[in-house]
Amino acid sequence: MGVIDDAIDLLINEKSLRRTWIILIALFGIVGIIIIFSYNTIMQSFIGQYLQSQESGIRQIAQSFEIGNNYYLLPFVIFGNNIKTALITWISSITIIIPILIVAVNGGLVGFVLPAAYSHPPLVLFYLLVPHGVIEIPSVTLVASVFILLISKGPAKMYRDSIGILIMSAIMLAVAAIIESFLTATIAQIIGSLI
Asked: In whole angstroms, how far apart are CA 41 and each of 22, 54, 57, 80, 171?
């Protein structure tokens, strides 16, 4: 698979891309933590209302799959939502700022959802996020980090060279969607019953 090999080579050879990727993973986490600690204040703001509408939409989708025979379609919906985010992030790399904002908003959304789920023990919350998040978060932030190539390569070469990263991210997002649909909740339930 030449395109994936090229993406791996790009990651190996472009120190600025790796650094940016790590910084964006950290940004995701930091924004999530800030949202958790300022949850009550944020709930009163425009940002809180936006995050609440996003969280409500996600919850409605999840509930519609739990009650119907559409359970096996859930990974496709999750993947579709995540690949849409990855594509928008990749296309908007030319703006530099939009990929950074997308990472920050997604980190904020995770930080927003966690306090709402505090009825669960912390270990259960950990397992509700980690099994798929350990793949999904690096995948989205990897695509977002592509903007750094704009500086050294220009727009055409940035997009051409990073198509493999987009494909690699799509594969990772597909795996994360399957894990999120079929394993994450089960693992969290098992942990919850043991606590």
From this structure: 29, 18, 22, 32, 38
